[in-house]
Amino acid sequence: MTFPRTRTGIGIDIHRLEEGGPMILGGVQIPNEYGLVGHSDGDVLLHAVIDGFLGAANLGDIGAHFPSDDPVYKGISSEILLETVFALVREKGWNPMFVDATIVAEKPRLAEFVPQMKLKIARAINLTQEDVSIKATTTDGLGYVGRGEGVSCHAVVTIQRSE
Predict the structure, then answer these.
(1) Spatial distance between the Cα atoms of 82 and 50, rounded to a whole number of angstroms
(2) What is the arithmetic mean of pLDDT over 91-119?
């Protein structure tokens, strides 16, 4: 059986916003009166990227690897989760090629934090910042994001078989 040399995976994550908690996106703490709620640090960007990697490598999903009912992962940095998944993907013979993610949030404005997010992700998965694309958009006031109830992220990850 031959394996495809290149694969693409899609990751999507959504977390509720709550007053007073930290907002961490792409491993970067964003000043904001509301934070993301999750069993870990609630980093929707890294969670979507993780699921993208897991999907591309056909290794299940983030919940299968880091169950939300496991106290080991309570409050854990999603950077650690990404590094763990990256090691697993590499162990299975895959290398990252490109990450493209879109954060959907009504507030705060995220453009000034994007370079830091790109750098953190690139370093964690052994890519250059040019190989990591992060965008932010709003819903123009529509739905749960528009009402300020949550933040979502969509990520596409491309991997290549190691030679």
Answers:
(1) 6
(2) 97
What is the spatial distance between Cα 2 and Cα 123, in angstroms, rounded to a whole number?
A: 31
State if pTM tops 0.90.
yes
Q: Is 99 left (phi over 0), alpha (psi -120 to 50) or beta?
A: beta
- What tokens appear for 112 in the block? 């000034």
SS (H, E, C) 2-64: CCCCEEEEEEEEEEEEEECCCEEECCEEECCCEEECCCCCCCHHHHHHHHHHHHHCCCCCHHH
Give the pLDDT band of residue 4 (cuts 50, 70, 90): low
Averaged pLDDT for residues 143-148 = 95
Q: What average pLDDT is seen over the chain? A: 95
| 58 vs 127: CA distance, rounded Å | 21
Peptide linkage before 67 cis (omega within 30 of 0): no
Rounded Cα–Cα distance for residues 87 and 11 (Å): 18
Pick from 162, 163, 154: nearest CA to 44: 154
CB 39 within 8 A of CB 68: yes
Query: Measured between alpha carbons, how far is 7 from 45 in angstroms, rounded to an integer?
Result: 20
